[in-house]
Amino acid sequence: MSKGLAFDKLREILLEKDWEEREEFAQKLNDLDDQLNSRNRLQEKIQPILDNEREDLRAKFPELFGPQITESIRKQISESQDEVVEALYPILGRMIKKYITSEIEKLSEKVDEQMKLAFSWEAWKMRIKAWFTGTPQKDLIISKLIEPKIEEIFIVEKQSGMLLGSFSKNHSVDQDMIAAMLTAIKTFVEDAFKGETQELDSIDYDNYKIVIKNFKSFFIAVVTSGGMSMAFRDKLDDTLLDFAEKVLKKAKDGDDEVKQESITSGLEEYFDNFDKHE
Amino acid sequence: MNKKVILVGHFGVGKTSLVQQFVYSKFSEKYLTTIGVKIDKKVVEFDGHQMTLLIWDIAGETEQNSVSKSYKLGSHGIIYVFDLTRPSTYENLSGQVEYLKTLLPNAPIQVLGNKKDLLSEEELSSITETIDFPFKTTSAKTGEYVEDAFIDLSKAML
């Protein structure tokens, strides 16, 4: 065997495995090249991964980006208030218009009802009632349209602001705090205007009116909603005076708890059906 | 049993901070002056008794008799607060307390020297020596003797 032939044979023996592996690698490389350069095949492979990631991101989006988005919106609003107002104005305007329209419709319906009754027995009864009681007929009509209601009553010790008793239809507020705050407001107003004998007797806010009836050592604050007619106010004043005379005088003596219980039960007795009688 | 408690004293002595610490267990370094009056409520329990305190935190005054007494009337207890780090707030301590005692003869008074946390032991003892009036030291910041001050006053109001 020649030297060259022997060398080739030796190389063939030694490198045979390497050649096989090289061919295998080349094949794999060709396949990979084919996959990467063919859009459809690449999409087929990557799409499930992208779908998974997208679903994951969607689920975690508020948690990941919520604070940044809120901050960015807040900044945008504070830096471009005019633009925000301009954008919201038509929407809010439409909402307010819609609300007012619906309220006017309701009022108009009630006025229609009253007009229909204008020549009825009911109307004549109202005229006679107005004539006898001295209450203007318009007040009687208004009270029928937007009926006044008593929402809460507080009996408060004048100087300390302590709650002596209360009556409430919904018990939604801390009544001790309200009694103290009402006393502070009364004190502030009465001090500010230095009225030695003058006292705050009503507070108006939104659809509510707080009627305050002042007595020597306590005051009664009545929170009312709806239209306050003269007739309602008269009836309320009379009832409060009667209540003060009959219940509060009796409850004056006795310890705090007994006093509070008897005042509260007295309030219930006097005012539970007060609106219904009106 | 409901009781009205007033907090009075010079402005900036920490009356509002004491109430915040007592009612909400909170303290803030920010100073916001009280306008008029601020009212809070807390129920305390001691020795088998339960008492509801309506706490009237009245805006600071340099002299107790210089402003309207209306907010103070009808109080069952008084907490007079001064600032241990500002001598002007305790210069006329006995005079101020005397005025309150005349105005509300039946109301017990608790006198508190606040901001104890800002002083070292030595500073505190030298200040205490200069004040010729019984008082307790507090810190609205750390809460030291805050709850106890209200409980002691509640016991005295029973």
Automatic annotation (TrEMBL), chain A:
Identify this protein by name: Cell envelope biogenesis protein OmpA
Organism encoding this protein: Roseivirga echinicomitans
Source organism phylogeny:
Bacteria, Pseudomonadati, Bacteroidota, Cytophagia, Cytophagales
Automatic annotation (TrEMBL), chain B:
InterPro entries noted in UniProt: P-loop_NTPase, Small_GTP-bd, Small_GTPase
In alphabetical order, the GO MF annotations are: GTP binding; GTPase activity
Which UniProt key words apply to this protein?
A: Nucleotide-binding
This chain belongs to which protein, by name? Answer: GTP-binding protein
Which organism's genome codes for this protein? Roseivirga echinicomitans
